[in-house]
Specification:
The complex is a heterodimer.
Chain A: E1 3-7, H1 11-23, E2 27-31, H2 34-43, E3 48-52, H3 60-70, E4 76-80, H4 85-93, E5 98-101, H5 106-117
Parallel strand pairs in A: 1-2, 1-3, 3-4, 4-5
Chain B: H1 2-10, E1 13-17, H2 21-33, E2 37-41, H3 44-53, E3 57-63, H4 71-80, E4 87-92, H5 101-104, E5 110-113, H6 118-133, H7 144-150, H8 154-180, H9 184-200, H10 204-216, H11 222-243
Parallel strand pairs in B: 1-2, 1-3, 3-4, 4-5
Helix pairs in contact in B: 3-4, 8-9, 8-11, 9-10, 10-11
The chains are: A alpha/beta, B alpha/beta.
């Protein structure tokens, strides 16, 4: 079973991502902040990372930089409420594979995750 | 038992009360095939116990002359003592059973004679689901998005509404504290975090207010905007309390 690390601090978004991705057949691990995510990334391996950009303790950008430097094979999907072009472009320039705005469309999420994990 | 509760939470639950299960087994099987959750009780007393301990039975189909409590006494008890209001169908052995005056006072929704066209019964049950869908929606929130994510999973929807209530209340409390501390950077971050919660219950005024606080507000605007956000949250909360009394929202 493919393992997905979800890094998100909004409880409702966490619940909906966990519900949808588990239903799609993935093993979902949750980190509510960047610091916890870094700890989990050092302890275990993941097939995909879904992360918010505005995170407590360690920001989304710092986390992306860490993953791209140390775990470059792991694809990243950024989850953000922001539709500001500059923020999206910054994320892509850092090497993230995809971007989904919150609240997400369930079908769109399934398709994008499947595409990156296939 | 846990699996039963989950199934009951997700499907339209029907409780069929009859002393002889063989008499209603075909009816039960047919309703299950139509996607309903069906359970059986042998007596009115057993039915009352099930209504006491389990939520989710929307329909009660009950044998008219069940003993020791007949259909009317059982329905009356469930409605008046347990404050539950299932769609009540009395199952008659033959058409035209005489109903005594006192029984007429009990609000029965339908009568069905065992052996008659089952589609008529099914149509009455289906009509309830349509009525549920037509219930007037609150102008302050909608559960359409939560339904879409979860394929209309009742348990998920109710837990999400509880999370909305608890987490947004906490975050708005934080906003007030940060205003007092003049920590404007943190205010913007918290508003950004709350925004998807309002979006998920489709309250777009809340979404706009969060955007305004996050991206546009000047220092002197924060207090007013946060008050407006709290008012919007309180309206949602009041509507949820009215529509979901079983959630015991604070």
């Amino acid at each position: 079973m493919k393992k997905i690390l979800v890094i998100e601090d909004n409880a409702m978004v966490i619940k909906s991502l966990q519900f949808k991705l588990t239903k799609d057949g993935y093993n979902v691990i949750i980190a509510p902040d960047g610091r916890e995510a870094m700890k989990l990334l050092k302890e275990d391996e993941y097939d995909l990372i879904l992360t918010d950009l505005n995170l407590p303790f360690v920001t989304g950008n710092e986390l992306i930089a860490y993953v791209k430097e140390n775990l470059s094979a792991v694809p990243i999907i950024v989850l953000s409420t922001s539709t500001q072009e500059s923020i999206i472009m910054d994320a892509f320039n850092m090497g993230v594979e995809d971007f989904i705005t919150k609240p997400f469309s369930p079908n769109e999420l399934s398709l994008r995750v499947r595409r990156l994990l296939s | 038992m846990e699996e039963q509760s989950k199934e009951l939470a997700n499907l339209h639950g029907i409780l069929i009360v009859h002393k002889d299960y063989d008499q209603i087994s075909q009816l039960s099987l047919y309703l299950k095939e139509q996607g309903y959750y069906c359970d059986h009780a042998k007596s009115g007393l057993e039915a009352i116990k099930k209504f006491e301990t389990e939520d989710g039975f929307k329909t009660l189909i009950i044998q008219e002359n069940n003993i020791p409590l007949n259909a009317y006494k059982t329905i009356d008890y469930i409605k008046t003592e347990l404050n539950k209001n299932p769609y009540s169908i009395v199952l008659q052995e033959s058409e035209g059973t005489e109903i005594v005056a006192s029984q007429k006072l009990v609000p029965v929704d339908q009568f069905y004679v065992l052996g008659d066209d089952i589609n008529i019964l099914l149509q009455h049950i289906k009509n309830q689901d349509e009525e549920d869908l037509n219930v007037e929606q609150s102008p302050y929130y909608s559960i359409d998005y939560l339904k879409e994510i979860s394929d209309n999973n009742k348990e998920f929807i109710e837990e999400s509404l509880q999370l909305f209530s608890v987490s947004v209340a906490k975050d708005i409390g934080e906003l007030y504290l940060k205003v007092k501390a003049k920590d404007y950077e943190e205010i913007r971050k918290i508003a950004h975090k709350i925004k998807p919660s309002f979006a998920m219950v489709e309250n777009f005024k809340g979404v706009e207010l969060c955007d305004e606080i996050t991206y546009k507000a000047k220092e002197e605007d924060f207090k007013k905007l946060i008050k407006e956000l709290f008012t919007e949250f309180a309206e949602i909360q009041n509507a949820l309390k009215r529509d979901y009394p079983n959630l015991n929202l604070q």
